[in-house]
Amino acid sequence: MRRNILTIMALLLATTVAAQTDSTAFKAYLYNQEYKVFMRISFHQQDIIIPGQDILGPQPGYMGKDGYTFCWPVITAEVKGNKARLQLVNDYGSEDLDAVLIRENDSIYTLKQGKGSTIKMPDGNKWQKLPKTLILKRK
């Protein structure tokens, strides 16, 4: 009897830990050092306020670049397992794309751009195209 109770308690604890991990897997600050770009995401709560753009209200997240106010807001995020399907639009509203963000492990995420525009970020006086597949690390 005691063994059954311990087994049930262990299963409940494992389920609770798995649920917490799943709900925090897509709430993070992700960064790519090479391109100096980041993503601030909260796909389950969708409670990210973009600095300087509070008129948009809470969003699932956004992608930005160090030293610039330009960003790509995430307008929809649908999480299934370790993948999230995203729709992003630049903050001018002139370009948009579909993408997938894959959680490889606790600290590595891969952003794969799909159909639509290519993500471009300001870089000095030019626009820099980001690669179709970008590795981001959790900070």
How would you describe what is shown here?
Helix content is 17%, strand content 47%. A hairpin with a 5-residue loop joins strand 3 (61-65) and strand 4 (71-80). The chain is of the alpha+beta class and 139 residues long. It contains 1 helix and 10 strands; from the N terminus they run αββββββββββ. The longest helix is centred in the N-terminal third of the chain and has 24 residues, at 2-25.
Highlighted features:
139 residues; alpha+beta; globular
Summarize it.
With 139 residues, the protein is of the alpha+beta class.
Task: Calculate Rg over CA atoms.
Answer: 18 Å
| Helix and strand sequence | HEEEEEEEEEE
**Strands, count:** 10
Q: Strand arrangement, largest sheet?
A: 1-2-3-4-5-6-7-10
Query: Structural class, please?
Result: alpha+beta
Mean pLDDT: 88
Q: Which ranges are low-confidence, i.e. pLDDT below 50, for 5 or more consecutive residues?
A: 9-21
Instruction: Estimate the global geometry from the Cα principal axes.
Output: globular
Largest sheet: 8 strands, antiparallel, barrel
